[in-house]
């Protein structure tokens, strides 16, 4: 159980780090009309990934745990979507590299949450 708890908290820390890194990116993105709307959605969904995973770890039942992890999965996918929509034209390569790295992190989180769900639900 100890190793499993460590992984759980590692994922809690990872999702928190993801939300913080998204907020750092948000501060650097040009504030066009379309970007403002997308950045608002991105801030919400990126924070929701970890918040729902945190709630999953305090779930009252297995069903509740799976439901919260599914929400984290959905929010990770949504965060990737908003990251892809951002208009970074005219910005530095560093900003684009940061965005691509965060999209990759979304993809990895999606795979992790999908695996957790798959292992919890008998086939």
Please tell me the overall pLDDT.
Answer: 92
Separation, N- and C-terminal Cα atoms: 24 Å
Uncertain regions: pLDDT < 50 for 5+ in a row? none
Strand runs, count? 0
- CATH architectural label: Up-down Bundle
CATH class identity: Mainly Alpha
Helix share, percent: over 70%
The overall number of domains is 1
Task: Encode the helix/strand succession as letters.
Answer: HHHH
Classified in CATH, the superfamily is: 23S rRNA-intervening sequence
Strand content: under 5%
Rg result? 15 Å
CATH topology: de novo design (two linked rop proteins)
Q: Strand count, sense and closure of the main sheet? A: none
Structural class: mainly alpha
Helix segment tally: 4
Give the overall form.
elongated
Overview of this protein structure:
The longest helix is centred in the C-terminal third of the chain and has 28 residues, at 93-120. This protein has one domain: 23S rRNA-intervening sequence (de novo design (two linked rop proteins)), CATH 1.20.1440.60. By secondary structure, the chain is an all-alpha fold. It has helices spanning 2-28, 33-56, 62-85, 93-120. The chain contains four helices and no strands. Helices cover 84% and strands 0% of the residues.
What's the quick description here?
The protein has one domain (2-120): de novo design (two linked rop proteins) (Up-down Bundle), CATH 1.20.1440. The protein is mainly α. The protein is built from 4 helices and no strands.
């Amino acid at each position: 159980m100890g190793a499993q708890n460590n992984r759980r908290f590692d994922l809690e820390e990872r999702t928190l780090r993801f939300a913080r890194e998204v907020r750092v990116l948000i501060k650097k993105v040009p504030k066009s009309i379309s970007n403002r709307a997308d950045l608002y959605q991105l801030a919400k969904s990126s924070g929701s990934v970890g918040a729902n995973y945190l709630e999953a770890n305090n779930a009252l039942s297995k069903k509740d745990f799976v439901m919260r992890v599914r929400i984290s999965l959905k929010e990770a996918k949504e965060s990737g979507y908003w990251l892809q929509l951002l208009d970074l034209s005219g910005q530095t390569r560093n900003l684009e590299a940061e965005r691509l790295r965060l999209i990759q992190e979304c993809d990895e989180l999606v795979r992790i949450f999908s695996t957790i769900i798959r292992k919890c639900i008998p086939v």
